[in-house]
Amino acid sequence: AAKGPAPHLKRTGSTATVKTMLLEWCRARTRNYQHVEVQNFSGSWGSGLAFCALLHSFFPDAFDYDALDPGDRQHNFALAFATAEERAGCAPLLEVEDMVRLAVPDAKCVYTYLQELYRCLVAKGLVKTKKR
Q1: Separation of alpha carbons 31 and 17, rounded Å
Q2: 120 close to 27: Cβ distance less than 8 angstroms
């Protein structure tokens, strides 16, 4: 009998590698946005502005980023999630109320949402990926 994992189950990158790449992508897309410094998948997303900046970098006509208030978390999350759903076709995997209730967002939830957003942007042809 064959030993080791089935060939069709082999991964091309570890989870840590994928997480690092996604974080670097988010950091690069939001680099020049005021009040945003993406360092992780939790506290960096707490005001909702990182989500807004990420979406604004793809859809600059969707809203006026400079008019956003870092303290208005409810509005920022609602705007970001609605824009992601309308413009990118991203499923609403996060609830505004849940995000506002937590002082620091759950890293697993944020990571999962960003993976889905990335997948949707790739599907729309807005993010280019390297061919394997």
Answers
A1: 21
A2: no
